[in-house]
Amino acid sequence: MKTAVIAAGLALAAVRLGAETHRFVPTQFYNTYSAAHPPVLRIMPGDRVVTKTIDAAGTDWNGKSVGSGPNPQTGPFYVEGAEPGDMLAVTFDKIETNRVMAYSASLLAPYAVDPQAIAARTDREARRLTWTIEKARGVAHLDQADVQPGGLELPLRPMLGCVGVAPARKEAISTATPGPYGGNMDYAWLNAGVTLMLPVNEPGALLFIGDGHAQQGEGEVAGTGLETSMDVEFTVKVVKKQAIGWPRLENGTHIMVLGSARPLLEAFQHATTELQRWLMADYGMTERGAQTFMGQATEYEVANVVDPNFTVVAKIRKATLPRR
Amino acid sequence: MKTAVIAAGLALAAVRLGAETHRFVPTQFYNTYSAAHPPVLRIMPGDRVVTKTIDAAGTDWNGKSVGSGPNPQTGPFYVEGAEPGDMLAVTFDKIETNRVMAYSASLLAPYAVDPQAIAARTDREARRLTWTIEKARGVAHLDQADVQPGGLELPLRPMLGCVGVAPARKEAISTATPGPYGGNMDYAWLNAGVTLMLPVNEPGALLFIGDGHAQQGEGEVAGTGLETSMDVEFTVKVVKKQAIGWPRLENGTHIMVLGSARPLLEAFQHATTELQRWLMADYGMTERGAQTFMGQATEYEVANVVDPNFTVVAKIRKATLPRR
Amino acid sequence: MKTAVIAAGLALAAVRLGAETHRFVPTQFYNTYSAAHPPVLRIMPGDRVVTKTIDAAGTDWNGKSVGSGPNPQTGPFYVEGAEPGDMLAVTFDKIETNRVMAYSASLLAPYAVDPQAIAARTDREARRLTWTIEKARGVAHLDQADVQPGGLELPLRPMLGCVGVAPARKEAISTATPGPYGGNMDYAWLNAGVTLMLPVNEPGALLFIGDGHAQQGEGEVAGTGLETSMDVEFTVKVVKKQAIGWPRLENGTHIMVLGSARPLLEAFQHATTELQRWLMADYGMTERGAQTFMGQATEYEVANVVDPNFTVVAKIRKATLPRR
Amino acid sequence: MKTAVIAAGLALAAVRLGAETHRFVPTQFYNTYSAAHPPVLRIMPGDRVVTKTIDAAGTDWNGKSVGSGPNPQTGPFYVEGAEPGDMLAVTFDKIETNRVMAYSASLLAPYAVDPQAIAARTDREARRLTWTIEKARGVAHLDQADVQPGGLELPLRPMLGCVGVAPARKEAISTATPGPYGGNMDYAWLNAGVTLMLPVNEPGALLFIGDGHAQQGEGEVAGTGLETSMDVEFTVKVVKKQAIGWPRLENGTHIMVLGSARPLLEAFQHATTELQRWLMADYGMTERGAQTFMGQATEYEVANVVDPNFTVVAKIRKATLPRR
Fold first, then answer.
1. Which of A25, A67, B152, B178 is deepest in the core (most CB within 10 A)?
2. Cβ B170–D266 below 8 Å, yes or no?
3. B neighbours by CB contacts (3+ pairs under 8 Å)
4. What is the interface pTM, i.e. ipTM, of the complex?
5. Phi/psi at C212 (5° precision)
6. C124/B121 CB distance under 8 A
7. Residue D236's closest CA among D48, D22, D24?
8. Within 10 Å of residue B318's Cβ, how many Cβ atoms?
9. Nearest-by-CA chain B residue for C121
10. Pairing mode, strands C310-317 and C298-304
11. Chain A contacts of C262, Cβ < 8 Å?
12. Mean pLDDT for chain A?
């Protein structure tokens, strides 16, 4: 038996020696986060899962329609030993595009712009545009001169729009919606290398993933990223008796909390409140010290303003955290 | 005569050869943005102003109380040739702390956290804390073990919370408030090196500056930065007949728009809408091309959620802009 | 066969002659709106149901705890012939208190007051208060001089906080939450005599009721009404192929739409938008005529600002509707 | 000397015997609430003013354009003895239309409907419509079959959209905007017979009135009422050392507070918070008693969702107030 340690010295559940690698190719896809769906796989903490996700509209890596929107999910994965009140930590080792085609919307979403700007549009037709992913060059491009003379080209930054677990209170929530259970947070910086921490509400946690984007602006203001299918690898860990209020994220430079709600300010408030709790619990800060520090050190990102709940990310640069 | 060019090839007003440098030490300070205040100085486009600002509560670089809060302003500076419908571009060559003391608040502001978290506080007393600026080491530190054992230390990143002009419609607006005229935007990245563009609403524009922070977190969630006095140098330019809706900002890496309003989403909408207008006017984008591009390329920052209007910044990384 | 006609001459499904009366005393109670719960009764359009609801915390008419909060529901009732795309119309002939005790909260809810007012409270302890219902006198009173010298007394106005059907998209939603499916709207004027119209999302509609209040202020700003158990009688009708976006309500004087969302303005927008649609579809108004009329004739009520979604009611006084 | 008593036994300033009646026909009109405007008249507490207002676009009772929008104001009236920290009580004895023509907008305002509904409009042209006021019949009608076949007719309910005083902090605020100083609250029930109470921020208070509507829906969702000129009579009183946070209103049945802000919820919060303060200060309620009572007794109205600040009215039916 060995013990792994992630962010901030959390007391992790012991992890088996010789953790297994599961290769799982999904064939069925769900449109709600719910404990009512039967697990597709039972995995142990420490296990690695090598799997795939289809795009937000249900098209897979072969261009075949195998699910339906919104955001059909791969999973759920049942994590042995995860019980309500625990925290599930999911580390993504790989999030990589696996086909050439991505699509995007081409109008700014209803709540992303002034209503007067919506009224003033000369062209209100919702059109889906097709982008080409060039993995070798690390870019995606749109080659439609009728949309933009000269086309558009952007660097790839593959991410998952959706990572979630079964919600609390026996709710079954549409995979369009982010919340305390994670879900459709659409955070542009949920890339390979991050660890996402989610509350466990049901035995086995029931982990779902989906909605890959080859690239996405912050706010997801057009209502889509560059929607495509993905190859994904992740490992899971369980932190026992570590109840958290909102998803937490850690990457090489930052610790973060993702709050989701409408209005946008409430998402901001949830993220800020949970971040204070985290600093006090795990980083030795006092009630007043944490607030004083946060006033001068917090950074924020807007993950999405287009889903049924909006998502705001409150961040602390690890280099600014007090030495412990 | 020579012609300077800033961001995106704007047609600037011709600038005099041999532009003047004005050294101005303020002795009177205003608490409203208003065309009713007599100009302290009349300057020409191209001129440089070397001046100072006092802190948000009215204390100067000698620790002497010479003005009163909120955010007493240096100015107004009357810019010759600036007329309603023009755009004023202010480039800050220097924003530098000029004393050792800064102060901050130490409770998260009312709208920055969940109301339940306010109800649950064990200590609700508003306390002002004193930080020490160590310019040589490039840091500010708080040495109060009763606030945080071991104290707090953060890198310096001097900024101006307030840069504004006289508002439209003959309004006189408190210097606590940001708006289309700029004002108390409290944007942590309004540092030396940036160019801020503001609409001209009154003859001479009437430029005000103030509210320096040695460092500030995004969102200004404690309601203050590290409030201190500043040495400031700036030059101004006038772009004729270039009506803009919201302040625009350019630094080495990004073009940005700062929208201010409540609720937070409306600030977001203003910034996004004006950014689209800018991309279409100056970067050769079509109505649909701009929207498609913004969906995948926009970044956002939350400048403040504590002032009478909140401020959101919509940004485009210049490297992603199409070649023109 | 006879045909009943409700609001605005809707084409109702034919109703059986000799409609049945069902007497149903619930023994099991649900905490989600979901099509996954087995119907307790199958009823025909035109049938009358005579039943009871327990209070929001699960206590019944005998003071016995038989369910758990929030808002345990009586039902679901399966309405024969109701199919997705239809509209269910529920007429409440009786909503009457059936016990002496009601309880209420005694602090204004987190989002109902300024956050500064929460910080300034001298007493933050959540306390549940017990009121006495005097049906003969038509009042409820609170006799606790420590809460209010002289006590408090208010007229009875019995209502149901919750009336809902199975949601769309296979979601299972907490009975704390109102939405397009109805649910916990907490509208103080959902009293005996009204007809509530709900969209049908699942075969049989699956009607749930609960959360009776002997009296409630608008906004439900303390987070509860005078929570108690109720005797309820209702009849149902089905309007075929009449898709509606939000619950509609009709009483003796008004037609109304109940929009639910956060922020409050979005609830307002949903109600206003659906009301325009209704006026155009059923009251002979043009697109511009409806808007012109609504500008001068609409009334609004705030049903709740305390549930996961807030609820706003847009109303038109029937006397102001154009003759048709 | 006699002493008048208004709402809730307030200790009023003594009022002269033989109070004067001033007949004032305005010829100059202001578009900001500001202490910088010279008073048109100096009046004593108890005095009556008989005057007129022009419509929101500047047209007077003769159909002559004499001012410019938005909401050109009659006044300011300087009230002798009114000092900062006092409360001004204005009783309107007459608010009556004085011409045949009124105009209205005919599209729902940008924030009043779902943004998707704006995108879906078939006709987006802003058109101003002319209504006919028939004072004898007590109605206003629109006779344009192209807008609505058969036309529209609504009862008259004359009101003032704007009643305000000079704001605090030397601000000059557009007459489009409501706030703590009153202003453009656009409350449909500010009719003849009410007493409006406003905070005094500047010596003399400086009272402005304007923006009469022959009729207006709640929320003012089309962005206008039936805009017309008015005959107005009012008397003023001063309550010394009675600082209030938001305008208060009393009519025959209710006491009310009008909170103004964006977002809508914040206006609601301001009104609710100030109402609690009022109940505790003047109606013998304890901190917990007031909250308990308000939860079951408060009513709300939405005055406007179209001005730079939105306005919400929190109301208590006087019949439900505890006997004192």
1. B178
2. no
3. A, C, D
4. 0.94
5. -75, 140
6. no
7. D48
8. 14
9. B119
10. antiparallel
11. 261-263, 266
12. 94
Distance CA C158, CA C230 (A): 8
Q: D110 to chain A, minimum CA–CA distance in Å?
A: 6
The CATH number of domain A21-100+158-244, selected from 3.40.250.10, 2.60.120.580, 3.30.465.10, 3.40.30.10? 2.60.120.580
Which of B118, B121, B123, B268 has the most C C-beta neighbours within 10 Å, making it the best mutation to test the interface with C?
B118
Q: Tell me if B114 and C116 make a contact (CB, 8 A cut-off).
A: no
* Residue ranges covered by each domain of chain A: 21-100+158-244, 104-155, 250-319
CB < 8 Å to A110, chain D: 114-116, 119
Residue spans of chain C under pLDDT 50: 1-15
- The C-alpha angle with vertex B222 and arms to B220 and B223, in degrees rounded to 5, equals 65
User: Would you state the structure tokens that stand for residue B11, as one six-digit string?
Assistant: 């047609």
Q: What is the CATH number of domain A250-319?
A: 3.10.28.20
Task: At D111, list the tokens.
Answer: 């924030």
Alpha helices by DSSP H, chain D: 115-119, 264-282, 287-297
- Beta strand pairing status for A87-97 and A101-104? unpaired
Span B82-127, pLDDT tens digits: 999 999 999 999 999 999 999 999 999 999 999 999 999 999 999 9
Is residue C78 within a helix (H) or strand (E), and if so which, with residue range? strand C74-79
Q: Tell me: the pLDDT tens digits for C226-274?
A: 999 999 999 999 999 999 999 999 999 999 999 999 999 999 999 999 9
Task: Tell me which residue has tokens 């890596």.
Answer: A61
pTM of the model: 0.95
Residues of D in contact with C289 (CB under 8 A): 147-149, 152
The half-sphere exposure of B112 on its side-chain side, counting CA atoms within 13 A, is 29
Which residues on chain C place their C-beta less than 8 Å from a C-beta of chain B? Answer: 110-111, 114-116, 118-119, 121, 124, 263
User: Does the distance separating the beta carbons of A111 and D119 come in below 8 Å?
Assistant: no
Which residue is it, tokens 């990310």?
A: A313
Q: Does residue B11 carry a pLDDT above 60?
A: no
Q: Three-state SS for C70?
A: coil
Q: Do B119 and C116 touch (CB under 8 A)?
A: no
